[in-house]
Design a protein that fits this description.
Number of strands: 9
Shape: elongated
CATH superfamily of the largest domain: Vaccinia Virus protein VP39
Number of helices: 12
Strand order of the largest sheet: 5-4-3-6-7-9-8
CATH architecture of the largest domain: 3-Layer(aba) Sandwich
Structural class: alpha/beta
Largest sheet: 7 strands, mixed
Distance between the termini: 61 Å
Helix content: 25-40%
Order of helices and strands: HHHHHEEHEHEHEEHHHEHEE
Number of domains: 2
CATH class of the largest domain: Alpha Beta
């Protein structure tokens, strides 16, 4: 790191032990308005010391080493300047598992776990004639959706696409970390229009924030997370329209689509699906805050089409 990035004076006083170190980092974050100060302080101290949360809480009299203080001082300064803690430590949790993240990908949200759960319900658990089921994850980012589906349903083979080569490299690394690299093929692709093949499921957490809303997002999101993964156009539906239009051509009859959508978009997405006249069983799922967040549907069979 360049010397200009180093603090002029230490933010952290010499603590007596890791318990007092954790308490001070939490107090410092709280005093600067960090909402989840206790959790984030624990994440930073765990990452720096290598101790898990249980050790920090139950064996807090362990002595503190100066290199930990030096590293934490830099981490805390970065956090107080707005950088998300997940980017600082290079790690985020999703569906109970640890994933590598960096500024080329979105930080996974708890709401996206609902997208995974919907996808798992839509996919059969049994294999037909010994063949693996096929699914495509569009805009895979860090790969959390594809990797989690592969882990939860070992009978699935996935194609994971993204426009970002850096995101694909990270997603591939996450698939290796979790032992499912053989179950996922990664491909640089902007849309489904050039895709050939037949899938039983298309799943996506696409960019769905409209231009105007991006300006009012929290600084941690607006200033640090990749714009290409956030910006869904003037009304936030540009990518979703493309997915609705093209996924019907790559899905088998009775295949399913599952999409994460923005606050207030679910009914508009339902209308897009209905107007396409190739979708049935359209359903909307609310997130933990009661916001309609997941929209999924099945492709009509040839007999059932209008």
């Amino acid at each position: 790191m360049h010397s200009s990035h180093r603090p002029r004076r230490p933010l952290l006083p010499p603590p007596e032990n890791i318990r007092s170190l954790l308490a001070y980092v939490q107090e410092l974050l709280q005093s600067h308005g960090v909402v989840d100060a206790a959790l984030e302080a624990s994440m930073l101290v765990e990452h720096t010391t290598g101790f898990d949360r249980t050790t920090l809480l139950c064996d807090g009299r362990r002595p503190v080493h100066q290199p930990w203080i030096d590293e934490l001082t830099l981490f805390v300064e970065r956090r107080l300047h707005g950088e998300p803690v997940q980017y600082i430590i290079g790690n985020a949790w999703f569906y109970g598992r640890s994933f590598a993240v960096d500024p080329h990908v979105l930080i996974p949200r708890p709401e996206t776990e609902l997208l995974v759960e919907a996808a798992l319900r839509l996919l059969p658990r049994t294999n037909r004639h010994g063949a693996r089921h096929r699914a495509v994850d569009i805009g895979t980012g860090s790969g959390v959706v594809a990797v989690t589906i592969a882990l939860e349903n070992p009978g699935v083979h996935l194609l994971a696409t993204d426009v970002s080569p850096q995101a694909l490299r990270l997603a591939r690394a996450n698939s290796v970390r979790h032992g499912v690299a053989d179950a996922i093929q990664f491909c640089a692709m902007k849309s489904l229009s050039g895709l050939r093949g037949s899938f039983e499921l298309a799943v996506s957490n696409p960019p769905y924030v409209n231009h105007e809303t991006i300006r009012s997002l929290q600084p941690e999101v607006r200033d640090y997370e990749p714009r290409v993964a956030l910006d869904g156009g003037a009304d936030g539906l540009d990518v979703i329209r493309s997915l609705v239009d093209h996924s019907a051509f790559v899905l088998e009859e009775d295949g399913a689509i599952a999409l994460e959508v923005g606050d207030g978009q679910a009914e508009a997405v339902r209308a897009l699906l209905e107007r396409a006249h190739v979708w049935k069983e359209i359903e909307i799922i609310n997130d933990y805050a009661g916001i309609p967040r997941i929209v999924h549907a099945r492709r009509e069979t040839a007999r059932g089409r209008h």
